[in-house]
Write a structure and sequence with these properties.
The structure holds two protein chains of two kinds. Chain A is α/β, with parallel strands linked by helices. Chain A has twelve helices and twelve strands. Bound molecules: adenosine-5'-triphosphate (ATP) and magnesium ion (MG).
Chain lengths: ~325, ~325
């Protein structure tokens, strides 16, 4: 199999060198493919993305272990200037809130043009022309006119399209989209996903799509990584995991999708929501972080870190084995 | 068209404001104790009741207050600010001759405050935990709380007495003469201490404000976007962050310009700077009402103009304030 474009290997991030925010996170995504990352709020999805881009929001957050390989090159070995050169050209990112992610004081043309001129030595007129092409590619009607608009003159969906245009300006190998549609309504979400798919089909860019919406995973992702409290608890092909989740947490998430009602969930207690909340950073022991909320948990789960079990293309970190020792999806 | 209507409305409200200030100032000074006629008589050497009556008649002081107010407003409308009781010169001429030095002092002081304040604020926000940043915080606290005359006296002691490299009074050295270049240099030399004194308070304030807004802006989503785009730090800070961070500074300049004018009165007095401030100060002591009223009118106009300028600057910087056009 071909090398992954992005390979995160055992990444750990600590807060003040003591509390583990990310704990041994491993992920990979191949060219032309989409990796979905799901999990409840606070489980470390954004932190994973920011760590990959090396854009930690605070100096108190440091990478305490692991590697982040982009086409084989470990980003953690790069100096700041080399990393800066990679951002916006080989790795790009778009964010959750398009209303605040664009600078209110500069025009769309200026902000997208800046991304183009970062990567190519071209004049302003040329940058303007390419910007218009990009805006057209992300589905903005009448791109010439939109060049001179300020962000406040655009709707949320259009702003997110502008963000995407900005991100793909440098033809990145990987695009990280951190909940790109959470702030938008459902029809706009479908349009944004379409733009991302079209872009991927045209350029082969690998996408890391962060979401807490299983529906988005089934629509967009080739593979999915399920995160819980700073760890990846399950990872594998999206359709296989959605059809037959192994980890009790994943099963909880999947059963939260309203439309699901098939044999895979026979015997699984009705779980419209998973009871309880993600434990705080300082409340996380050695054992499985999901244990306090898990219907299967016993003493061993609470005390000792679960092993990572592999089964073909899938892996799962649970004391009960793949699917709790049962065929996938059954207990 | 919209913009023009806007401008018209602003001008109208500015005129109304100036009118109100004129009336208010006039009333305020007229209910203050002290009879200018006795002062003028004192200057002339005699103070008999008959002389006083003549003076009152000559200056219209014997008229009812409302009549005096009406006459005064009408005259101001035609640009006539009356005659000074003390100098016997037209107030307008007096003010014009003193306006230049005051504007020079104000603009230089403001310039120092903006450049230095923003620079200190930005630098300290970039490294909020560095010793430099703490130094800036302490400096702004001192600068903020120190009265203008105290700063002035301190600078006089330091650079006029202990290490005398700057003149401590006046606007030029009358004992020397030279070409226009010498004149410019001479005035600039005299300007240093007063401008620093006036600028210090506002440098401190702008540094504080700019530090706070910069820290806020650096945490914003659009700065994170700029970093994710791989822009240079100089572009992220100088373009994306700074432009947003100085908006509150622009606002406060407009709000504080009146305060700054009264600061200039103190500075001019401390440094014997021949501007409107010293004229105002002397006029108060001399109960020279026409001059005092003229200065107040003039400073009101100045404040209104600066407010309009800052608003214009704000509009230029922030497109959201400009008339909303286009669609979404
Ligand atoms: N600046 C910060 N300093 C310290 N801890 C932080 C900081 N930002 C986030 N964290 C912590 O990191 C953990 C992971 O947060 P993260 O933002 O990655 O969650 P998430 O999975 O993206 O959640 P959401 O779905 O709400 O976006 C949380 O426990 C959070 O408290
Ligand atoms: Mg997040």
């Amino acid at each position: 199999m071909q090398e992954p474009v992005l390979k995160v290997d055992g990444l750990s991030v600590a807060f003040r060198n003591s509390l583990a925010i990310l704990d041994d996170v491993s992920l990979e995504v191949h060219r032309g493919q989409t990796l979905g990352i799901v999990g409840e709020s606070g489980c470390g999805k954004s932190m994973t993305a920011l760590a990959i881009m090396r854009l930690m929001p605070s100096a108190a957050l440091t990478v305490s272990g692991g590697a982040i390989r982009l086409n084989g090159e470990n980003l953690l070995d790069l100096d700041d200037e080399a990393m800066r050169a990679i951002r916006g050209s080989r790795a790009a990112m778009i964010f959750q809130d398009p209303m605040t992610s664009l600078n209110p004081l500069f025009t769309v043309g200026n902000q997208v043009g800046e991304s183009i001129q970062k990567n190519r030595q071209i004049g302003r007129a040329e940058a303007r022309r390419i910007t218009a092409d990009l805006l057209k590619a992300v589905g903005l009607p009448d791109p010439e006119r939109h060049l001179d608009y300020y962000p406040h003159q655009l709707s949320g969906g259009k702003r997110q399209r502008v963000m995407i245009a900005m991100a793909i300006a440098g033809h990145p190998d990987v695009l990280i989209a951190d909940e790109p549609t959470t702030a938008l309504d459902v029809t706009v979400q479908a349009q944004i996903f379409q733009v991302l798919r079209d872009m991927q089909a045209a350029s082969g860019t690998a996408i890391v799509l962060i979401t807490h919406d299983m529906g988005a995973i089934s629509e967009m992702a080739d593979r999915v990584a399920v995160m819980y409290a700073g760890r990846v608890v399950e990872e594998g092909p999206a359709d296989a995991i959605l059809a037959a989740p192994s980890h009790p947490y994943t099963r909880g998430l999947v059963s939260c999708i309203p439309r699901v009602s098939d044999a895979a969930f026979d015997g699984w207690p009705e779980l419209p929501v998973i009871p309880g909340t993600v434990p705080d950073l300082d409340q996380r022991g050695e054992g499985c972080h999901f244990a306090p909320r898990c219907p299967l948990a016993d003493d061993r789960c609470a005390k000792r870190r679960p092993p990572v079990l592999h089964d073909g293309e899938r892996r799962c970190a649970c004391w009960y084995g793949m699917a709790g020792g049962q065929p996938h999806g059954r207990i | 068209m919209q913009a023009l209507a806007n401008l018209g409305g602003r001008l109208l409200s500015a005129l109304v404001l100036i009118g109100c200030v004129i009336v208010f100032n006039f009333l305020l000074i007229n209910i203050a104790p002290g009879d200018p006629a006795t002062v003028i008589a004192g200057e002339m050497g005699g103070a008999s009741e008959q002389v006083l009556a003549e003076i009152r008649a000559a200056y219209g002081l014997d008229q009812p207050m409302l009549v005096r107010l009406g006459t005064y407003v009408m005259r101001i409308a035609t640009g006539d600010l009356g005659y000074s009781y003390y100098y016997n010169d037209p107030v307008a001429d007096l003010i014009l001759s003193r306006l230049g030095p005051t504007l020079l002092l104000l603009i230089t002081g403001l310039g120092i405050a903006i450049v230095l304040g923003v620079w200190l604020g930005v630098l300290s926000a970039l490294r909020p935990d560095s010793p430099f940043s703490h130094l800036v915080t302490v400096f702004s606290l001192i600068g903020y709380s120190a009265p203008v005359f105290w700063t002035g006296l301190l600078l006089i002691i330091l650079f006029g007495s202990a290490w005398p490299i700057f003149p401590i009074g006046g606007i030029r050295d009358v004992t020397q003469s030279g070409g226009p270049l010498f004149h410019v240099f001479d005035v600039a030399h005299h300007l240093v201490l007063p401008a620093l004194t006036l600028g210090a308070v506002y440098t401190a304030q702008y540094a504080r404000l700019c530090r706070a807004s910069m820290l806020e802006v650096l945490k914003s989503d659009y700065v994170r976007t700029a970093r994710a785009k791989g822009l240079r730090t100089s572009v992220i800070v100088g373009k994306h962050a700074l432009r947003n961070a100085i908006l509150p500074v622009v606002t406060i300049i407009g709000l504080q310009i009146g305060q700054m004018l009264s600061g200039a009165v103190l500075v001019e007095t401390v440094f014997n700077w021949p501007g409107l401030g010293t004229l105002a100060f002397e006029s108060v002591l001399r109960r020279d009402y026409p001059t005092l009223l003229g200065i107040l009118v003039c400073s009101t106009v100045l404040v209104v103009i600066v407010n309009m300028l800052t608003e214009l600057a704000y509009r230029l910087i922030d497109p959201r304030i400009r008339a909303a056009g286009g669609a979404g």
